[in-house]
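Data availability excerpt. The first of two example chains:
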Amino acid sequence: MRVAPRRPGVLALLVACLLVVRAAPGEEPRPPTCSESLPDLFDRISPAVVYIAATSINPFRLADRVTRAVGSGFLIDAKGLILTNSHVAYARQSLRVSLDSGETLPAELVGADPIYDLAVIKITPPPGSTLPVATLGDSDRVRVGDEVFAIGNPLGLDQTLTRGIVSAINRVLTETAFSDQEPLIQTDTAINPGSSGGPLVDRCGAVVGIATANVPEAHSIGFAIPINLAKSALPSLTTRGRVVRPWIGFHGQLIGETLRSLLRAQLTEGLLVEVVEPGSPAERVGIRGGTLDLVVAGHDYLVGGDIVTRLNGTRLDSDERLEEAMRQLEVGKTLRLTLFRDGQEREVEYELPERPILPGDTMERRSVLEPSRRPGR
């Protein structure tokens, strides 16, 4: 008697299905497709989003000394740690956090970094309560066109949901020193004053960015700090209260062939030093900044200063080499520079101290960084 062949079991069918959708060798795994409805996603994520009311006092003013502002944040730890923007929480005399449950609690600043506009604050959870926590995603997997959502408190309107897409990645919003540049996620999701510090979440509800700014002269151009940047800064923010970075003391921009051929001067490939920061180690060793303002094809240069041709032996002839050399710098290590000045090269070196918070760091580097000044709930 013949035995009928066995039908594949459920496990075998599942394995077969997994083999079908598995990425080919060498390909990136496909991101999961999430079909949760938007109302359900909001109900799941919004309890972790908080409303922050901040108060600061300017003792040097005779009137209107007190500023009251509101912003957003989200819980990243069941013990009460909240991630938000530095411009929401830094240098405030008072911070109060309102939870989705309606409870309002005092908060204290744990750490802040004005350069990346990140801050961690902490509340003490109510007795017997379990705080909801946001899921942190992977911003390196974000692609242009991905659907994203922002939850925050624009203009003090708490728990507001807005919807859009990722418009661009790796945007550098302003002309900043090369050592302080911050690649941002650009989105057309509505971000307004008071949204600052709130989460930008993907279709699966994972936080991929932190709302930080928009362009007031435009429509639907907003920016978010990539969550991976925040995750890399969190250990230093929570243990040291700041992000520790080396201070080289000068900044400028790479010299291109266009500028060299136009000026026909004694220029070489390298980093044109435009500004030397007062009190910096670069100033102490005599590095010179620019003195002549020059506009070439709509691009501003401050020429006349030193040109750094090598940094710790790396030739500075491309953005990639400059970025790689900067990543190798550490506090306490020696920085060796080759400078081109007046047709000659000279060598300088100095030990890298920790970069302090400079006056420009606490200024509003982006026009809409200031949280909403409307009263809270």
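And the second chain:
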Amino acid sequence: MLRFTQVIATSEEAMHPVANNGVLTLRFEDRRRSRMRARLDDGREAALLLPHGTILRDGDRLHAPDGGEMAVVRAAAQSLSIVRCDDPLLLARAAYHLGNRHIPVQLGVGWLAYEHDHVLDGMVAEMGLSVETGVAPFEPEAGGYGRTSAGEAASHGHGHGHAHHHDH
């Protein structure tokens, strides 16, 4: 079984050129897990033993501890609820209410998407927005204190020393 313990973000790829040994296609819910067993697209078994809190992004590369094996992560297509709107304020309200419920949201110009949920679809529809269902890879926002890309901490996490106050 392959063991992957290190992640190299797509943005760091030029600094770490390595040939792909495989592809690991995962839904978003599995890309949020730091420990799991999985199968590469070619059928080989793999174990992910990643730092706690790791969120894998499409294009991230997983490395084995000895540096010999590598696999690229692919975001699997999954069922999404997609909201399109020309009114930025109304779209921002929907994003706010979804975020207030800790729902991961993917944002684009004039649209947002979240993992399909008929209850959330009803809430968004009550706000006057139409919701359609589609199938596509899901890459939600990382969040204010989340990892902005593989291996990279957000620039304003805890454990920093500078002269301003945080209300934690």
